[in-house]
Amino acid sequence: MPKLWNQTIEEHRREVRDAILDTTAALAAERGPLGVTMSGIAEVTGIGRATLYKYFPDVEAILLAWHEREITAHVSQLQEIRDRPGDPGRRLERVLQAFAVISADRRHHNPELVAVLHRGDHVTHAQHQVQAMIRGLVREGAAAGALRADIPADELATYCLHALSAAGRLSSGAAVRRLVAVTMAGLRPPD
Asked: Which one of 1, 2, 95, 150 is separated from 120 by 20 to 30 angstroms, measured CA to CA?
């Protein structure tokens, strides 16, 4: 088959898959994960059930694929922020701010849906990636004298992640920014 034909087919498959993921996530947010059926997804997406089953075996598989796509996008966003120019302390602050905003957005998620989605290995893998990213920035900042070096970088990275996970329980963007400021204050070298 010609290369253009293969690219067109792959693009079509990607578009169908994305439509399935987006529709399922919207239905699950609206109805809860138990209120979503394969028939309902096929109907709203506008594809046949047989086609839907060629992509995914069940609703849970679709939700996990959607969540994995979302998590991957979040990690990519954090990596892009980390890789911007600037001193390590400022880069770390930007990464922590973005992580806190992502954590704060979780407060709008259906608790049933969160319980289903956070069982996958993709969540653990993403957590390890973010931990390593923050640990690296802490090490860079400590080497430059901008961040504390008296506590192991891995311990400080864990502290940051746990502290900023609380952003999901905060009620405003200003509160999230204050949480990041308090976390950054704890990372600065002692006087």
From this structure: 95
